[in-house]
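Checklist before submission:
- one chain only
- standard amino acids only
- sequence pasted in full

Submission:
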Amino acid sequence: MHSPLTVRILGAGVAGLAASIALAEDGHHVELIDERFDAPPIGTALGLFGSAQRVLARIGVLEAVQAGSTAPLAGTIRGVDGRAVASLPAGEALLVSRSHLVRTLQHAVPDTVRLVRRRIEDVRPLREGADLLVGADGVHSLVRRSGWAAAPPPAATT
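Returned file contents:
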């Protein structure tokens, strides 16, 4: 048996919600921080392949996610200009809306996870009293910038 860690997760999107569920179920003390805790009203569809589905099964939400998903037979990857880059079989992939996935994960967060609704401008205070700070706060991550300020910003690929 391991000693439970105190974990703070910044960002309650797909990654932050899934991490909070898994870590809490593993016996850790989890605090999930976000300024809104909203599911996006609309959004992109996400392709969930085998590894993602195994994680969802481990945290007990795969069936609920499947209920709001489709399993396409094939797909096309398009560039920024809309041109088809590749066509490929989907295999065992699921196609699910981000909003359905986020709502499903929100409902699965254990009561032991402490939800903190606030805007974070500086992550340094979040490190105090925590064994681990997880940056799940998106592509323009404040956590990433605080630890790797000299790193180049994320860029779109074409």
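Reviewer check: Helices lie at 14-25, 50-58, 62-67, 98-108, 124-127, 142-147.
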